[in-house]
Amino acid sequence: MRLLELNLGMGNLRSLQKAVEYCGAQVQLSDRPEEIKEADGLLLPGDGAFGRAMQEIHTRDLRHALEEYVQMGGPVLGICLGFQLLFEASEEFGQHQGLGFLPGRLLQFPSNLRVPHMGWNLTYLDTTSRLLRHLPEKAYFYYIHSYRLPGVYPFTTGVCHYGGEFTAIVERENLFGVQFHPEKSGNDGLQIIRNFLKIVEELS
To answer: Is residue 183 annotated as part of the catalytic site, yes or no?
Structure first.
């Protein structure tokens, strides 16, 4: 299995890499378009600002490779900021276009709430999701974010509540995403990583 973690020069890439290795797989850090196209599975990690991440994607000439990879059915798991990049746009520090693989716009939490939304929060799961196999219907995951996708969509498979309902997990065909950090979320978070590895194995 050739698993790739997209390196945009942002965030703590090593913590996710270590979690994947703990789950029994090797993962390569890369920002090379030709290596994206050859990957069996792709991780979009994230810490940092939406606009800067998209700028890095364009600067490193990764947009076309990512689009081609998704169109060819390559499995993608977006995590935290990587989850947000899957959508059409974000209002974080202005208006920024995302990758647009899924419909939706990331909005700031209401001003009366403490932000970032940080710490463990209960998340309600659709356990028929391939990404959520062997998990309970409710689980706590570790969040740290100031923008969210309000409401639910046909591809929403997990929901969290903080100042209202927001989409916490998505699954549509070969696209998967979690707003929280599974690598920081104990056994249930590691199970999500294991499930993604299983999906990659099944599709390889």
So the answer is: yes
